[in-house]
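Researcher: Please predict.
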Amino acid sequence: LARSLNIPSIKIMQDYGLEKSIEAAKSLGITSLDKDPSEYGLSIAIGSAEVPLQQMTNAYAAFADGGNVRKNTSIQEIKDKLNSSIYKHASTAKRGISEQGAYLVSNILADQSARSFMFGSSLNISGKTVAVKTGTTDDNRDAWAIGYTPDIAIGVWVGNNDNSTMVSGGADMAGPIWRSTMTVAIGDATPSFSRPLNIVERYVCYGGGLANTWGSNTYTELFLSTALPTESCSAAVPQPDPDPEPVTPPTEDEEELDSDDDTDDPSEPSSPPSTTPTSPTNPTNTSAPTPRSLR
């Protein structure tokens, strides 16, 4: 999900079921999916059905609000000429997804290291925790970027009025607009997503499986406490380096023996140096080697 890979999304929808997936979208406030599920097929997992930007942004706002879906409105308050309020929007909420499910989605979309594989740092806001997802339709005709903090959700669409193709997709076209807008909206705040109850952290192996301890082949992941992986794996625990063998210091007798071996006996005369003359050698006229040409 963080890397925006299509095939895993399709496989998850295939396992979960097309009808249940559409009902889940409707529970988050998506009302445009009014056709028979068979007309969409599994490609709906990667955007084959049209959804207005306002509805999709409001669905992401539900993840930001702990799974609560609120009615979207463009009018907060109306005042008369005397500055008296004659209408004020009353926000009501309904449960669209569990608090734990909303947090897991937010945790995935806010994982900068996971999405950097695909997007680099183009969607990061320095020092801030933000959840964000991009989208691109065929031939780069539509570019999306929707992201949020616990306080605000922002959606950006980029496209041409005549539906002609663009030079790039969501991260390159809509991403910079979303990032600039969100940076200003956050300001000096330091948003963070609060972990709800029944969310646990466990070691898992690269390639799958739940490990019972840390290892060089493991990393940490968050799970719903009632939905832990059923497969297990073995953590590769690095073995400590062997301790060096202790060095035994020499005894006093050994030190005296070494000292005796190294001391010359002054009572023994030293051998005079050899005075045998040596015959001079005839100098040989050696010519320098002929240099080779470089080609």
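Model: Helices lie at 6-16, 18-27, 53-64, 99-109, 112-119, 170-173, 175-186, 252-262.
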